[in-house]
Amino acid sequence: MLVAFSVTPIGVSESVGDIVADAVRVVRDSGLPNRTDAMFTTIEGEWDEVMAVVKQAVDVVAAQAPRVSLSLKADIRPGVVDALHEKVAHVERRLAEQ
């Protein structure tokens, strides 16, 4: 499965980048395939392992902020591997054809 999520500390200073970096560090340390962009971090793996990483990332942020906002989107597709890269590669191939 793929899970794209964004965790935002609320009730702290205007700049939240340092706290968000702590959450991204949890994801990267998990060893699961992942990618971070300006809006979301996407993780690929099995349900239990991915959700455990999301929880850990939220817990790291919650330890530093009185309130946390979590947005999450999941693509649950059993048997598919490397969807993190293949979904984008498919779109790029189609764009190159036109």
Automatic annotation (TrEMBL):
Residues 3-92 form the Thiamine-binding protein domain. Signal peptide: none annotated. SUPFAM superfamilies: MTH1187/YkoF-like. It comes from the Bacteria. Pfam families: Thiamine_BP (PF01910). Belongs to the UPF0045 family. This is UPF0045 protein. It comes from Winogradskya humida.
